[in-house]
Design goal:
By secondary structure, the protein is an all-alpha fold. It has one domain (13-42). The chain has helices at residues 16-29, 33-36. It is flat. The model has no long low-confidence stretch (mean pLDDT 86). GO terms for molecular function: DNA-binding transcription factor activity, RNA polymerase II-specific; RNA polymerase II cis-regulatory region sequence-specific DNA binding. Residues 12-42 form the SANT domain. Residues 6-42 form the Myb-like domain.
Length: 42
């Protein structure tokens, strides 16, 4: 999906679990979004 949006992306509000996963991953990887995305489903 390089240069295109994936139509299967989950557009529901974030769960608390997803929010915490992002915070933890950001503490490790900083703003490396390719790495952060690996921790988030959808």
């Amino acid at each position: 999906w390089h240069n295109h949006l994936n139509p299967a992306i989950n557009r529901d509000p974030w769960t608390e679990e997803e929010e915490l996963a992002l915070i933890r991953a950001h503490q490790i990887y900083g703003n490396k979004w390719a790495e952060l995305a690996k921790f988030l489903p959808g």
